[in-house]
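Lecture 7 notes: from sequence to structure.

We start with a single chain of 359 residues. Read the sequence below before looking at the structure.
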Amino acid sequence: MDNQCFPVLSFPAVPLLRKAKTNTRRDVEKAASLVEPSGLTERSVFHQPWWLDATTGGNWNLAVVKNGDEVIGEMPYMLERKGIWRLSTLPPLTRTLGPVIKPKRKGAGEPEWCHRMNVTCELMSQIPECAHFYQLMDTRMSEAEAIAFSLHGFDVSVAYTMEMAAGRSENDIWKGLRRNTRNWVRRAAEQLTVQEIRGADAFVDFYDANLAARKRNNVYGSSIMRRLLVEVVHRRAGTLLGAYADDGSLVAEAALVWDNRAVYYLLSSRRVNAHSGAISLLIWNGMRVARERNLIFDFDGISTAGILEFLAGFGGHLVQRFEVERMRTDYGVLRTILRGTRLASKTASQRLRRTGPAK
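Now the structure, written as tokens:
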């Protein structure tokens, strides 16, 4: 492989977390619980208080379990009102959450899985009753946490993401790509140059313009996306990559975020007329960023067979993530009825567009 085809990008190191003061307002107190000192299960970037503040406008809470004065578990969650219903689901742009638990002390009598299950049960007891609760868990959550949710009436299922392991050479990673994926990356690199996009405004404006060209809206909310990416760039917790044509115009983009474990492929967008391999080129450069930082590269989940087929071309491996959900019967019935009504309305509109109004 000719390395000159793919410019190696250099990025600053992620700043270490610092313990917040606990004698200030409540949202700062949230940040004072589990941080990085030795022995702790680390938060993902999605668990960080600044991330949750950006994506919820500060509208989140934290369940905390202590052993004396020592915090041994925490679990952030968002609460919102929709009409008469109180709901708790993932905040916008937040891929995973779930419990963060400190491992048991050496020499403690109970097995580690019992400790994790018991702490999770205590965390769940602090979550208010709501009509619908849903979280997709970080990959570090074990079967012990999953069974704790199951035994307390939650539906537990398994979803998947794809990851590329850390510590591999660039040549090894390149050889792991499927031939057609390598070809798409190589051909895109002949026409496009990958550089950092310097600001969140430029990223979001491009993202929204591409959606408008397809007559779609930003499901995350443009203001939320902008607020979050400003924080990501300011905290050096990720980077915004752009693929540029020879005339200097931006034709595709991708947002990467990271923590001390992984680089996550968070967002991407491309112009309608962009080179077909533009996103593949950006993912490849994201994999190189992860290799440079000696981190896992997380491809951001698999929701369809088409996405699996596309991502499989990059040579990663499947990793499971637990989903936990509990829904009140009355809310579930109403949601099913509303979904059926919307589907019928959409089908009728599509039929009308195809055939025209009745005469």
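The chain has three domains: 26-153, 162-321, 328-359. Keep this in mind for problem set 3.
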